[in-house]
Design goal:
mainly beta; six-stranded mixed sheet; three-stranded antiparallel sheet; 11 strands
Length: 136
Amino acid sequence: LLHTLSFPLLPSSSQHYSFPVPPTVWTTSSSIQLLSGKSALIVCEANGSYPLRFYWKRRLKHETAEKNFSSGLRRVEIRDVSSHDEGLYTCEVYNPRLGVRSRSKPVELIVFDPPLVSIPLHDMTVTQGSNVKLSC
């Protein structure tokens, strides 16, 4: 994307100048919440002068440092998510001709584990008509 300006240098001609535009970056959501085992899709949008290179960074829930996650893609799909995937995902777009980077606001991935009911089972003999107590 280049912007062009036109202005007359001489009464009968005009000169065109194009100037580069630094990237602007955003994601399609700020938070994604889903059950473990599902797939999460995080999409990065950007505009600016080409070429644009896409990089993804993530900081997992229990980590303090941000790490490179993926490069080259506008979209990141995380299949079969688990609580280990929870954290902040940030898209970074780089224009090598301008030497300029731009980052999106982070997308928070929150994963819920379905409830797990665990009741030890054992055989029980009950006389017909008597009370039975079951506990959870």
